[in-house]
């Protein structure tokens, strides 16, 4: 099948939609960045070609919208827990964009909740200054607060 190929002038990327396998139900989207020579492919979740193309454009906007504007300086360093959690949540939101809206909200809400506990406990602390004792204390405090073991472990994995 021939690729649906377009060039986004504002963000200087190639994009389009394609069905990679015969009989594939949903359209797959792809974005190619010539500057980095990287291509990302994803399921748009759409069965109509025009709707799939709109999903790809939405993904491009989310990926590159802030790259051409100046961002205010953040009040914390790049290796602080806060900045790492911010980056993690931004990337996670892009990852779940193809999920249905109600599922997106639930997924992002659960990750935000985990991040909230880590922010409250570690805040602007540098990742390099956190040791095993800090993590053990965090786990102990969460258990005392009545948190489920699964939630605590999800937070420490994060």
Question: What does this entry look like structurally?
Answer:
With 158 residues, the protein is of the alpha+beta class. The chain has 2 domains: 4-68, no CATH class; 81-157, DNA polymerase, domain 1, CATH 1.10.150. Helices cover 47% and strands 15% of the residues. It is built from 5 helices and 4 strands, in the order E-E-E-E-H-H-H-H-H. A 4-stranded antiparallel beta sheet has the order 1-2-3-4, covered by helices on one side. Helix 2 runs antiparallel to helix 3 (101-122).
Short descriptors:
158 residues; alpha+beta; DNA polymerase, domain 1; 2 domains; four-stranded antiparallel β-sheet; elongated
Strand order across the biggest sheet? 1-2-3-4
Helices and strands, in N-to-C order? Answer: EEEEHHHHH
Q: What is the alpha-carbon Rg in Å?
A: 20 Å
User: Helical percent range?
Assistant: 40-55%
Broad CATH class of the largest domain: Mainly Alpha
CATH architectural designation of the largest domain: Orthogonal Bundle
Rounded average pLDDT = 80
Please tally the β strands and state the result: 4
**Total domain count:** 2
- Fold-level CATH name of the largest domain: DNA polymerase, domain 1
User: What are the segments in which pLDDT stays under 50 over at least 5 consecutive residues?
Assistant: 68-76
Number of helices: 5
The end-to-end distance, rounded to whole angstroms, is 40 Å
Give the overall shape: elongated
The major β-sheet equals:
4 strands, antiparallel
Q: Approximately how much beta-strand content do the residues carry? A: 5-15%
- Class based on secondary structure composition and strand pairing: alpha+beta
């Amino acid at each position: 099948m021939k690729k649906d190929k377009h060039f986004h002038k504002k963000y200087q990327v190639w994009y389009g939609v394609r069905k990679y396998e015969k009989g594939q139900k949903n359209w797959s989207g792809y974005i190619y960045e010539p500057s980095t020579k990287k291509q990302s492919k994803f399921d748009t979740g759409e069965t109509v070609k025009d709707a799939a193309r709109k999903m790809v454009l939405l993904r491009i906007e989310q990926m590159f919208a802030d790259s051409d504007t100046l961002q205010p300086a953040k009040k914390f360093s790049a290796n602080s827990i806060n900045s790492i959690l911010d980056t993690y949540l931004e990337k996670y939101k892009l990852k779940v964009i193809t999920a249905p809206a109600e599922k997106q909200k639930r997924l992002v809400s659960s990750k935000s909740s985990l991040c909230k506990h880590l922010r409250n406990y570690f805040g602007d602390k540098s990742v390099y200054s956190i040791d095993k004792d800090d993590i053990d204390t965090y786990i102990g405090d969460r258990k005392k607060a009545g948190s489920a073991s699964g939630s605590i472990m999800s937070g420490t994995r994060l």
